[in-house]
Amino acid sequence: MSHNLLQGKRGIIFGALDENSIAWKVAERAKEEGAVFVLTNAPVALRKGDIFRLAEKTGSEVISADVTQVDDIENLLNEAMKILGGKIDFILHSVGMSPNVRKGLHYTELDYNYLNKTLDVSAISLHKVLQTAYQMDAINEWGSVVALSYIAAQRTFSSYSDMAQAKAMLESIARSFGYHYGKKRKVRVNTISQSPTKTTAGQGVGGFNAFYSYANCMSPLGNASSEQCANYCILMFSDMTRMVTMQNLFHDGGYSTMGISDKLIDDCFVCTGDCHEKNTEK
Question: In this model, does residue 212 exceed pLDDT 70?
Answer without folding.
Answer: yes
